[in-house]
Amino acid sequence: MVSPSVDVIEKSPERIVVKFNNIPRQYVNSLRRLAISEVPTLSIDDVVMLENSSVMHDEAVAHRLGLIPLRTDPGRFVMPHECDCKSTLGCSKCRVLLVLDSEATDKTKVVTSGELVSEDELVKPVSKDIPIIVLAPNQKLKFEAYARLGTGKDHAKWQPTSAAVVKDGKDENEMILVLESNGALTAEEILVASVEKLASKVKNFKQVTSSLKIPKNA
């Protein structure tokens, strides 16, 4: 019997490709699903609009802000419902404040993610060139935005992957897992977090099943 094996065949910050040999497909697919839905990242979740004289409604601006991937430091923040601050506003452990104050003077201006100023030097948009809104002359946009941890199963804006695929390899009993990152986490960080999530779920399942009581007359 051939022993199971796992090999990384391609790796960059944006993409990782892993080959699995003689490992049940359901385990590999579980990693794919966890990468999409249960690996937490930071995303803007609440926006306090201070001034908006643009043609776009506040809600539409907030929606666009939520879809801007933010660089996330794994393990540095906690989920809002797990934080001991117990505050709806949050604290430095569970939220990050980003602000923007932009105005078009004598000509049209494209406001981009590069104008977002974060209170945390590590938590920033993964790109400075993501467009947020176009301001006409004399229009202004000013707001405070709060980023919090969340997972893809709650909203797509928290998904760390831009692609997650399981496909057959060249040989029998060989599968390939491809993970591509949107930049919030590196592809390797997504894979490691997925493995840890799967291991935790298996451990919890074993604990539950070991505590099962079988009736004597069964």
Protein described:
The structure is a single chain. The two termini are 36 Å apart. This protein is an alpha+beta fold and 218 residues long. It is built from three helices and ten strands. Helix content is 21%, strand content 33%. Helix 1 packs across helix 3. The chain has a four-stranded antiparallel β-sheet with strand order 1-2-10-9, with helices on one face. The chain has a four-stranded antiparallel β-sheet with strand order 3-8-4-6, covered by helices on one side. It is elongated, with a radius of gyration of 22 Å. A hairpin with a 5-residue loop joins strand 9 and strand 10. The chain has two domains: 80 residues, 2-Layer Sandwich (Gyrase A, domain 2); 111 residues, RNA Polymerase Alpha Subunit, Chain A, domain 2 (Beta Complex), CATH 2.170.120.
Which characteristics define this entry?
single chain, 218 residues, alpha+beta, Gyrase A, domain 2, RNA Polymerase Alpha Subunit, Chain A, domain 2, 2 domains, four-stranded antiparallel sheet, 3 helices, 33% strand, elongated
